[in-house]
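Troubleshooting log. The previous structure file for this entry was overwritten by mistake, so regenerating from the original sequence record. Sequence copied from the archived sheet and checked twice against the printout by T.R.
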Amino acid sequence: MSSSAMPDVPAPLTNLQFKYTKIFINNEWHSSVSGKKFPVFNPATEEKLCEVEEGDKEDVDKAVKAARQAFQIGSPWRTMDASERGRLLNKLADLIERDRLLLATMEAMNGGKLFSNAYLMDLGGCIKTLRYCAGWADKIQGRTIPMDGNFFTYTRSEPVGVCGQIIPWNFPLLMFLWKIGPALSCGNTVVVKPAEQTPLTALHMGSLIKEVCLLNQNVCMISGILTDSRKTSSGVGKLIKEAAGKSNLKRVSLELGGKSPCIVFADADLDNAVEFAHQGVFYHQGQCCIAASRLFVEESIYDEFVRRSVERAKKYVLGNPLTPGVSQGPQIDKEQYEKILDLIESGKKEGAKLECGGGPWGNKGYFIQPTVFSDVTDDMRIAKEEIFGPVQQIMKFKSLDDVIKRANNTFYGLAAGIFTNDIDKAITVSSALQSGTVWVNCYSVVSAQCPFGGFKMSGNGRELGEYGFHEYTEVKTVTIKISQKNS
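Regenerated output below.
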């Protein structure tokens, strides 16, 4: 759904003050051990919003020590009723609802996200996710097992302990709740590292966590550059798994990048397919890991699909995402902006047909024109590399077998879309695609009840749904010798 079709939303706040810029440990705010700070910018204006304390190894050690202390056997957190954990998480959701306008304004200013999308989609998703996780808190159950012999055997699902959680910059608040919600619901403690580009809403959450009294040390937050931001998400994921292997073989769950195929068959509802494919790649300036960034369109409808897609892309109004009527904001920072422009230039040089856009926009801020390429081939950089920008590349296919092979010919496997009115074709193709999520006649439909994650280099493990809680528990088998078993 386009932002113009959304229900009315309130006006964003003006003269917003950023009160929380320090490191959050032991339910208190701390300066960094080194005394260093780093600037946080508004990508629409390039103006500095504030400075945030920069965490380093010493700060991480303090946070981990506090989180371990909170997880000790006999601690208030470990002895708390599971239902009480759920009550506290619901109370935190209440506070997010209370501060919804403030958080949405902050998300738009810090991340360049359209205010209407931040208010309706991101904050709405945060509240629903946290309430969903709260409901699971007293439903994490074990099983009894009919073991051979005179034994009584049962399993326990126990929390894994201290969880280190790294938050991306494209959905900073929503991903924060995706991480801490299931972790705390299962009884773990967490040390959170918000993205250095977008730490402000996560830090505000520290004040809400303190207000809830979510027991002193359960959530610690450290902003700073603890990972190599110059690498892709898959590159950072490799570094994290390598570090885990070299240290103590800690469990790692990763949701990484994508180059997701979206396949439009000739029998599809064309209006529906054009709009969903468009939103699938242009939503939040293309800065989505699930972006429908490899669009395959059947040959007989290709020219008409391209024409309609270009017409749709040309409707955008670029500008400050806090301004009413604006439908596209800036990219997150200069580094991403330059990377996207470089990939657009590669498309031009490698022979793709530039249908619209193709360059920067405006004199201030990291804005890029909505760009559509046709006549794209699978070997072009724009067809292989994750662009993370407002760039749609449309490729042509002739047969079902051909498009399945081409769709799967990637290192990634996060998501996919299929548009067809043939149910047999929809089931056949969705089964064949190597993707963690497949949408049929829709795209980017994500809900707290549904597991989310990727195949191949798009990651390991799942978030959300019942499957998401498995990442945060260890299964323990307990076997007791008894005198006689009765069935």
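Residues 261-447 form a domain with the Aldehyde Dehydrogenase; Chain A, domain 2 fold (CATH 3.40.309.10). Archived copy saved in two places this time.
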